[in-house]
Amino acid sequence: MVSLASLMPAGVEFLADRHLATLSTIGPSGRIHVVAVGFTVHEGDVRIITSDATQKVRNVERDARATVAQVSGAQWLSIAGSAVIERDPDAVALAVRLYAGRYRQPRVNPQRVVIKITPESVMGSAGLLA
């Protein structure tokens, strides 16, 4: 199985660059629910900040399967795994700091939570993975 540890230097750089991505979860009807997100990777986990009342949070609470995909031109990475919702203030603060470092400081949101994905498989374009 290919993991984040399989990233080549170009893959590490691609994940560090500022790119938006999509998050795919399973919606209530069983169809794939896809939304645009910003995400970070830290200590092997993917983190996405969002509001607690969003459909993506409800989807993860019902079915933990989730995939983040980032694309820029011919380069792409897809990280699939199991997701959980973190509401702990320290976990949220960490995710906000990581997001601010990759994108920008997010607006204040007292309803903020974290979707944390533990990767189970990684796919990507040539040159990003060993």
Q: Can you offer a commentary on this structure?
A:
Residues 10-122 form the Pyridoxamine 5'-phosphate oxidase N-terminal domain. By secondary structure, the protein is α+β, with helices and mostly antiparallel strands. The chain has a single domain, classed as Roll (Pnp Oxidase, Chain A), CATH 2.30.110. Helices cover 23% and strands 42% of the residues. It has 3 helices and 7 strands; from the N terminus they run αββββαββαβ. The chain has helices at residues 9-16, 55-62, 89-102, and strands at residues 21-26, 32-37, 40-42, 45-51, 65-72, 75-86, 112-124. It has a 7-stranded antiparallel beta sheet. Strand 5 (65-72) and strand 6 form a beta hairpin. The radius of gyration is 14 Å and the shape is globular.
SS elements, strand count: 7
Query: How many DSSP helices?
Result: 3
Strand content: 35-45%
SSE succession: HEEEEHEEHE
How many domains make up the 3D coordinates?
Answer: 1
- Mass-distribution shape: globular
Give the end-to-end Cα distance, rounded to a whole number of Å: 11 Å
Major sheet: size, sense and barrel closure?
7 strands, antiparallel
Going across the major beta sheet, what is the strand order? Answer: 2-1-5-6-7-4-3
Mean pLDDT over the residues: 96
Secondary-structure class: alpha+beta
CATH topology, which one? Pnp Oxidase, Chain A
Name given to the CATH homologous superfamily = Electron Transport, Fmn-binding Protein, Chain A
Q: Kindly provide the radius of gyration, computed on alpha-carbon positions and rounded to a whole number of angstroms.
A: 14 Å
Low-confidence stretches: none
CATH class: Mainly Beta
CATH architecture: Roll
The helical percent reads 10-25%
